[in-house]
Design a protein that fits this description.
Blueprint lengths: L7 E7 L1 H4 L7 H11 L3 E8 L3 H14 L2 E5 L10 H8 L4 E3 L1 H10 L7 H4 L3 E3 L3 E3 L8 E4 L2 E4 L3 H7 L14 E7 L3 H14 L4 E9 L2 E10 L2 H19 L2
Parallel strand pairs: 1-2, 1-3, 3-8
Antiparallel strand pairs: 4-5, 6-7, 7-8, 9-11, 10-11
Helix pairs in contact: 3-4, 8-9
Amino acid sequence: MNFSKEFTSAILIIGNEILSGRTVDKNISFISRWLGELGISVEEARIIPDKEVMIIDNINELRKKYQYVFTTGGIGPTHDDITSESIAKAFDKKYEYNKEAYSILEKYYTNSEFNESRKKMARMPDGASLIYNKNGSAPAFYIENVFVLPGIPSYVEIMLPALESLFKKGDRIISISVDARLRESTIAHDLSEIQNNYKEVDIGSYPYSNEKIFGTTIVLRSIDSIKILSCKKEVEEMVRKHSNL
């Protein structure tokens, strides 16, 4: 299942806390599912540390390769939140206060200290457009085809859907799972044969074990509803055949 560039995207997760294992990423799953509903395929997801050179290099590579790039993390008030400044450098833009973002934050912190750390969240690349947080706190931003979101999953889930009108939508990506209580090696050959017959469907196999039970989850993805249902039927017949041996 091949997508033209206009319906492709990549996700860049930025943060030492993810790589250290202290925080479990939930954003890739949400963003991927949400984009799938719009017919936009996530072709790649990367996790990188809070290092300026790595952020710049990855942004410049991904924004040329895919139609849309989504980043999460590194836009807060602390010293290690360097995503905004790094993206400004990637685009060769000035890193400065966004007047509207500054005003939003100033209002949000009316009853508490609006200190330099909090003001930092209003700094972003010159020419960036805001992504609003309906809770009234710090906005995120996008510049050209790069959408820069916070790392907090609940904020991503609020802010991303508000951007839907900005994206060119493709055919919805359908995903179907088939559970096989069989080892992956048992069905590998037949699954390859089915894949060869269904070029319009991506077939993935994911082994699992639960106590003494070994099995494989087979995931089908396609934008063709007729082909994916036909493929599902063949996969289920193949699973039944091996289960009865």
